[in-house]
Amino acid sequence: MRSTGFGHAGVATGLAFGTFDGCPGSHERTCHFVGIPITAEAALTGRVIGIGIQGFVNLNTKSIFGGGLFFIPIGWMP
Question: pTM score > 0.85 for this model?
Fold first, then answer.
């Protein structure tokens, strides 16, 4: 993560194990998968409030999924 006096930006990844109901392309009721989650975030912050954006995706062989959001961090920022 990279941080400055007015905000931060970061990218993170790892290894995930998950399950979900209704396996796509199969007659199984429950799917198990190993995936690679990736997230990226950037924010501009003042002393007490800021604004940011975050995106995420999980790359796996069963069902790739992802999303994004805008957020407002509130509190005393270091």
Answer: no
Torsion of CA 15, 8, 41, 46, to 10 degrees: 140
Q: How far apart are CA 67 and CA 78, in angstroms?
A: 28
How many whole angstroms separate alpha carbon 63 and alpha carbon 12?
A: 20
Structural domain contains residue 78: no
Which DSSP category does 29 fall into? Answer: S
Structural domain contains residue 77 = no
In a domain, 7, yes or no: yes
> Is residue 35 scored above 80 in pLDDT?
yes
Domain that holds residue 8: 2-71
